[in-house]
TrEMBL record:
<comment type="similarity">
    <text>Belongs to the universal stress protein A family.</text>
</comment>
<dbReference type="Pfam" id="PF00582">
    <property type="entry name" value="Usp"/>
</dbReference>
<dbReference type="InterPro" id="IPR006015">
    <property type="entry name" value="Universal_stress_UspA"/>
</dbReference>
<dbReference type="InterPro" id="IPR006016">
    <property type="entry name" value="UspA"/>
</dbReference>
<dbReference type="InterPro" id="IPR014729">
    <property type="entry name" value="Rossmann-like_a/b/a_fold"/>
</dbReference>
<protein>
    <submittedName>
        <fullName>Universal stress protein</fullName>
    </submittedName>
</protein>
<feature type="domain" description="UspA">
    <location>
        <begin position="1"/>
        <end position="137"/>
    </location>
</feature>
<feature type="region of interest" description="Disordered">
    <location>
        <begin position="62"/>
        <end position="84"/>
    </location>
</feature>
Length: 156
């Protein structure tokens, strides 16, 4: 059913469960896992010109760290990639290039606190992708804060 699964990550805690679910789903189907992190070009472009290269480097380092965490969880057979651009179109384009059968993403990323149900990136991926998208939300912990631990409920 699934041969290639693309897991989108920005390294935030709110995406941890999506990574876990994506890797687990791929393992169950014997699918290849591709982890993708996108450096948001709009963040770089919005910064003062004299800071852009430093910010780009910092964001790329953060993206590599996010992918390293996924690699640690998934094992050596995973393919990873860092792209720069607008996150939603880059995620969809990458998934199309890989002929993916599924995109897995969290419902909220680094900037997700200001969105009620779906973060803007997840929403755009769902709306624009010709490939099925599985969105995975964090679960509330005992104090009511969202956490990666818990049952494996996912929203689509």
């Amino acid at each position: 059913m699934f041969d290639t699964v693309v897991v989108a990550t920005d390294g935030s805690e709110s995406v941890e469960r999506a990574v876990e679910v994506g890797i687990d789903l791929a393992a169950r189907f014997g699918a290849d896992v591709h982890a993708l992190s996108v450096v948001d070009a709009s963040e770089v472009d919005a910064s003062p010109e004299q800071l852009r290269e430093e910010l780009r480097t910092a964001l790329e380092t953060h993206a590599e760290g996010a992918l390293s965490s996924v690699r640690d969880e998934a094992g050596p057979g995973i393919t990873t990639a860092v792209r720069e651009g607008r996150p939603a179109p880059e995620i969809v384009a990458y998934a199309r290039e890989q002929d993916a059968d599924l995109i897995v993403t969290g419902t909220r990323g680094r900037h997700g606190e200001n969105r009620l149900l779906l973060g803007s990136v997840a929403e755009r991926v769902v709306r624009t992708s010709p490939i099925p998208v599985l969105t995975v939300r964090q679960l509330p912990d005992a104090e009511g804060e969202e956490t990666a631990a818990g049952s494996s409920q996912a929203t689509t």
